[in-house]
């Protein structure tokens, strides 16, 4: 399986940290033998480039070596470090510089133990990949943000074995979670510092059961549950607002004091939570179908051919 470490190595090659104007070469060969430091004001030997000139080649938008405007802060940081202090990027030094790692839509299937080399990592974004399982043993303990949206995660047991203790945001939207077996992993025992939780567009169905687990999270302020079957229940939003008094934002909509007052007491009436929901779909107009009135009615007893048309409509939820 393609791992996060493999994707990161490809990313480094794409940045060209060993190529001009980065790294060590004829453009700063005196640095190679330790005869010159990275101080900008230091005299530059003939035939070499100054650190200022090399940085200008990276920063000037008209330079052929400039990064595109949409590049990440990590891209710029590593490229500039490769100019000023290329020795820091040798061996394991590069892993000490990375605090935020984003690997999106790179076909990653495995969160491997190579991630433990990132001893300062605080933010890990692995959205839009093919990850189905995440082992907490392979996650740096320093993580505060873990984003796994648009993957194939269907079980949280391995992730919750020893999760990062300081995690503040967990993004699991657009995955394959289905309750009630997964809800037991969403408690304070696993996520004592969680502030934001995205569970949108999964297959969670047990609203009271999920709320009973989420109510143990003392710092939860932002919650996304839209796109789950449980969000179709008539009292969905009111029940959540009244059950989780510390919640500030639900499904990207701010909870105002007036709304909380309006739903006050609903949490103590679980009998209002129904296990099914009714959806009414109305079809206003269909285009591209033959008009039945346009066919000429056959006379009684006529031997002419009879043409029939049949149609069906498919709904996907």
UniProtKB/TrEMBL annotation:
<dbReference type="GO" id="GO:0005737">
    <property type="term" value="C:cytoplasm"/>
</dbReference>
<dbReference type="InterPro" id="IPR032675">
    <property type="entry name" value="LRR_dom_sf"/>
</dbReference>
<dbReference type="Pfam" id="PF00560">
    <property type="entry name" value="LRR_1"/>
</dbReference>
<dbReference type="InterPro" id="IPR001611">
    <property type="entry name" value="Leu-rich_rpt"/>
</dbReference>
<keyword id="KW-0677">Repeat</keyword>
<keyword id="KW-0433">Leucine-rich repeat</keyword>
<protein>
    <submittedName>
        <fullName>LRC43 protein</fullName>
    </submittedName>
</protein>
């Amino acid at each position: 399986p393609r791992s996060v470490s493999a994707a990161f190595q490809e990313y480094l090659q794409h940045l060209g940290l060993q190529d001009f104007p980065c790294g060590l070469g004829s453009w700063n060969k005196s640095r190679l033998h330790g005869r010159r430091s990275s101080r900008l004001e230091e005299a530059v030997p003939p035939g070499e480039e100054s650190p200022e000139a090399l940085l200008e080649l990276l920063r000037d938008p008209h330079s052929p070596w400039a990064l595109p405007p949409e590049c990440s802060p990590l891209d710029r940081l590593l490229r500039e470090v490769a100019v000023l202090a290329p020795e820091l990027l040798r061996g394991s030094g590069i892993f000490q510089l990375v605090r935020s790692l984003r690997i999106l839509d790179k076909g990653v299937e495995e969160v491997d133990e190579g991630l433990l080399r990132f001893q300062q990592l605080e933010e890990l974004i692995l959205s839009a990949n093919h990850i189905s399982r995440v082992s907490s043993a392979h996650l740096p303990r320093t993580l505060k943000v873990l984003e796994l949206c648009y993957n194939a995660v269907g079980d949280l047991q391995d992730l919750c074995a020893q999760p990062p203790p300081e995690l503040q945001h967990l993004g699991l939207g657009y995955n394959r979670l289905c309750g009630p077996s997964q809800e037991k992993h969403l408690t304070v025992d696993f996520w004592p510092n969680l502030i934001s939780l995205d569970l949108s567009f999964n297959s969670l169905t047990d609203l009271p059961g999920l709320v009973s687990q989420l109510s143990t999270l003392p710092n939860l302020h932002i919650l996304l549950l839209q796109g789950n079957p449980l969000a179709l229940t008539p009292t969905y939003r009111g029940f959540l607002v009244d059950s989780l008094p510390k919640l500030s934002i639900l499904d990207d909509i701010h909870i105002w004091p007036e709304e909380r007052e309006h739903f006050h007491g609903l949490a103590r009436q679980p009998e209002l939570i129904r296990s099914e929901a009714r959806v009414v779909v109305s079809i206003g107009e269909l285009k591209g179908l033959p008009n039945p009135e346009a066919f000429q009615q056959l006379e009684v007893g006529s031997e002419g051919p009879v043409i029939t048309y049949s149609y069906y409509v498919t709904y996907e939820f």
